[in-house]
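Subject: Sanity check before I submit

Could someone independently write out the structure tokens for this chain? I want to compare against mine line by line before I put it in a report. The sequence has 92 residues.
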Amino acid sequence: MASKRRIWGFTTARRDLLLGVTLDLHAPLFTPLICSQRRSPEEDLWVMDSNVRELNEVYDLVESLLSRERSRKRRELLEGMRASLCSAMDRY
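---
Independent answer below. Compare away.
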């Protein structure tokens, strides 16, 4: 099942937050994954073509970040990411 591909889309603000966190954490697993997405023709939309396992790893990272984030703006970005990741993974 993990080999099935899923599309996950997110805004530039969410991409920048996630990329910054992965670089700060020195998380070599996530940095190439976050950098590998492509810009959509739609304004301010990034698209990641991943398998369920990769999306689940990003989901776990977002959950971990949410548990310790205090900034309201960053929490809102992370909550949006979590919701969109659930939608992307829900098809398996």
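---
OP: Matches mine. For the report I'm noting this point. Residues 5-89 form one domain.
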